[in-house]
Amino acid sequence: MIFLVIGILVVLPHASAGSIKVAESYWTLKANELVVDEDMAKYGSKVLVPLVCGEAFEGQKIIWKRESREELPLQGNRVFVIVEERQGGTYTCYSTEGNYLNHTLVLVQWRYRKIIKGTPEKGYVHCSTNNYSGSFRCFWAWDETRAGKVAFIKITRSHIVGNISCSLDSSAGSITCQDHAYCPYAEEMDHIDLTIYFRSNYVIETYYLQFRISDIVRPDMVRINKKNNILELQYPESWSTPFSYFPLTFQVKEIRCRRKRICNCSNRRSAKVDLTQEQQWPLKKGVTVCVRAQDDLANSSWGEWSQYKKEKHKRQNKKDGLK
Predict the structure, then answer these.
(1) Any bridge partners for residue 252, and if so which?
(2) DSSP, res 57
(3) Of 19, 70, 94, 217, which sits 20 to 30 A from 282 (CA to CA)?
(4) Domains and CATH numbers, the chain
(5) C-alpha dihedral over 38, 42, 44, 50, to 10 degrees?
């Protein structure tokens, strides 16, 4: 399970050392991890980043190394290191006897969207849930050209002290979260604020979402049972109860498919669509019935289509009857 420590923004007066300027801002992602908030996309961009070995080592002779092997021409508790373009690194401080004292991983905030797939219009991270239990899942797609991973997660309620925990799923392409203080029978006043920090090498990208559970709820597929010439539309087993308090609206459309073709509910946009809360639907001859559900009290997403197609009885071959 991943938890976030709130980062602290540090602003330095605009200064320079030779032709290289001091980083104007940087912030703590978590313990021993510093993110430089600079636009360093241009070739040859360089900034000076101040590092501190530790308050307890003030006035001592200290040696610094990058990646624990490259000794730097720096000494002392407080130093400036040069970060070029998007090349951060782990800077470790040692005593003159070679004893480890502390380290800082320096990362660079990337202002573009390269680590995971998506567009500003369609979004990058998507969240959904199949009921009002307070549990939900957020997922994304990695860009194949970059070795990305989740560096950190921050999740809170907008104005109240919440108790939301998230865990990274085994696929590394999603997280599962639980709002332990969520009450499905009360009006949801506050948004959930979710920030996910993705890392590729020394680059950090930040993705932010704000939503309510009612915004992302998406019912599972409707169950369809046939009784005589009536289709019974049943609520998904995963849907919240009682159903009278969590009503669903059904979207129903009837389509006619040519023989030997698979009926595709999603592609038949020209078919007539009916909305109903009734759980019985008359079955007509020669049609395929497509049904999906939406929370009747929230303008959230429709679920996936369920499909019912009456199977035709094959006539017995006359030759078989003569045998």
Answers:
(1) 274, 291
(2) G
(3) 217
(4) 9-109 (2.60.40.10), 126-216 (2.60.40.10), 223-309 (2.60.40.10)
(5) 0
